Amino acid sequence: MAKRARERARLEKQAAKRERRQGGSSEEATAPVDAPDEDALMEEFRVLSERHAEGQVPQDQFDQERHRIFVELGIETDEDG
Question: For a designed S-S bond to 76, which of 12, 24, 56, 70 qualifies (C-beta 3.0 to 4.6 A apart)?
């Protein structure tokens, strides 16, 4: 009797692990809908920085735009500005 109970427990444990793995992989495969496009934001920051360095963007506008981009990237918070 004890042998059957151990075997049943082992099989249930394996089934639970299999379900967790299958459930986890499907969640990881789907990207969050509200995730920022990091590449686009980094490109926007690059262009902004170049324009600022060339004198085309004033310091206050640069600071505001840089902060907005960094907030969207999750580097800064709204309170940091």
Answer: 70
In contact, 41 and 72? CB cutoff 8 Å = yes
DSSP 31: P
User: What pLDDT is recorded for position 5?
Assistant: 75
Q: Token pair of 79, please?
A: 């309170």
Same domain, 17 and 49: no
Burial of 31 (0-12, 13-18, 19+ CB in 10 A): exposed
Strands (DSSP E) found in 1-81: none
Indicate the number of domains in the chain. Answer: 2
- How many CB atoms within 10 Å of residue 66? 19
Q: Read off the pLDDT of each residue in 28-39 and give the average, rounded to a whole number.
A: 67
Rounded to an integer, the average pLDDT of 27-52 is 80
Sorting pLDDT into bands at 50, 70 and 90, what band is 6?
confident
